[in-house]
Specification:
The protein is mainly alpha-helical. Helix content is 74%, strand content 1%. It is flat, with a radius of gyration of 25 Å.
């Protein structure tokens, strides 16, 4: 009996490895498609001058470059991953044909990818502009999913390093890490006050409000009824400070002053920050895509040997929304104006998106802290009248 099951176990093991490897292949494809979007935005008119022959690209092919060109490539990326979402929907077992489609069959998928990228080139600009409007909504949904994933990761990290049991060494490490994260958050706030607050009342408001959020998160975490410790609030505080810093760095005035300051040092730092930004967003998309458990209302405790290692449909859906988010970063959330070369996510629209993202992150985290207390109070309020009625009837 055991001998019969050994080959099946080997097959499942290989299918599992193939499925896990496929994640990285999709991540690389996603990165390459967004590099194509950047090349079309900044250098498309030099490399693809023949596009002016296409009626959909308009006079001189301008409707296929810069902002509109980015949206066309983004739409192609969205189409590919959305088709993968539909074709892998509800795949749960490694022996299903849809698992083979997700993990293999790369040549047909390459043809599908080429067709997906080519189709938007022939669409009129009005449809592309409509996609741009929808992409703003899709990018917002992506940001919310990313926030939930980050907060769930922080909660897991807090449980790992600050256990309720007797592991004294882990608690010591957790306390040290809490100190490090709080020092980083407070140091970041001090640095922002020093470099970005002078003569900028709006920046003073952003930084001061971030400091208030940091204090509120720490106070609620330490409250006797919540008692979640300092590690999770320290990590979340550092993340909120990072979002504030990123928002201020997206302000056009800040970018202009820093560009003038870096003019004598060539533009290597601008190029490096651009490349780091792209890689960071790809990694964020990848990590959110494989984190489907954070979005399950009912947690499955039993994981069978032939179950897929992650939810394929959720993975591809996140990547399709990530394509929309990337497009917004390349055009700085503005459908009417083009971005400069080697610039990503700069402009007042980008600044306010990040600030709202910061406030939303703090709100979700605070609600996660206080919701168990609120639910417990409501349950006790409901049970008390029932108990009193029982005593009266008795």
């Amino acid at each position: 009996m055991d001998r019969k099951e050994e080959p099946k176990h080997g097959v499942y093991s290989e299918e599992m490895k193939s499925s896990l490897r496929a994640r990285y292949s999709y991540g690389i494809l996603f990165l390459l498609m967004n590099v194509v979007a950047w090349l079309v935005r900044d250098y498309g008119q030099k490399f693809l001058p023949e596009l002016h022959y296409l009626k959909s690209c308009g006079d001189g092919g301008l409707a296929c470059f810069r902002t509109t060109g980015v949206l066309r490539v983004s739409l192609g990326c969205f189409i590919f991953f959305f088709l993968m979402f539909i074709s892998t929907y509800n795949t749960r077992k490694l022996y299903e044909a849809r698992n083979m489609w997700h993990s293999g069959w790369w040549f047909p998928k390459f043809i599908l990818l080429v067709l997906s990228l080519a189709a938007p080139v022939f669409l009129p600009s009005s449809i592309i502009h409509l996609y741009g409007e929808l992409a703003q909504v899709g990018a917002g949904i992506f940001l919310v999913l990313q926030l939930i994933s980050v907060i769930q990761f922080i909660a897991w990290w807090n449980k790992h390093w600050m256990p309720e049991g007797e592991r004294k060494r882990s608690c010591t490490i957790g306390l040290v890490m809490s100190t490090v994260f709080y020092a980083a958050a407070l140091g970041g706030i001090a640095a922002m006050f020093k470099f970005y607050a002078f003569g900028q009342p709006l920046n003073v408001f952003f930084i001061a409000w971030t400091l208030i959020l940091l204090v509120v998160m720490m106070a609620i975490s330490l409250h006797s009824k919540v008692n979640r410790g300092l590690l999770s609030s320290g990590i979340m505080g550092s993340y909120v400070v990072f979002l504030c810093w990123s928002a201020i760095r997206s302000e056009p005035a800040i970018q202009k002053s820093e560009t003038r300051r870096q003019a004598n040092h060539h533009d290597w730092s601008t190029i490096l920050s651009f490349l780091i930004g792209i890689c960071a967003i790809v990694m964020a998309t990848f990590s959110t895509g494989i984190d489907s458990e954070s979005f399950q209302f009912r947690k499955d405790t039993m994981k069978l040997e032939d179950d897929v290692p992650y939810k394929y449909e959720f993975f591809h859906l996140v990547f399709s929304l990530g394509a929309m988010y990337f497009a917004m970063l390349f055009i700085c959330w503005n459908l009417k104006h083009s971005s400069k070369k080697w610039i990503i996510d700069v402009g007042w629209a980008s600044t306010w998106v990040k600030i709202v993202n910061e406030w939303l992150a703090a709100t979700i985290y605070l609600w996660q802290l206080i919701s168990p207390v609120v639910i417990q109070v409501r349950v006790s309020d409901i049970e008390e009248p029932q108990d009193s009625r029982t005593r009266i009837s008795g």
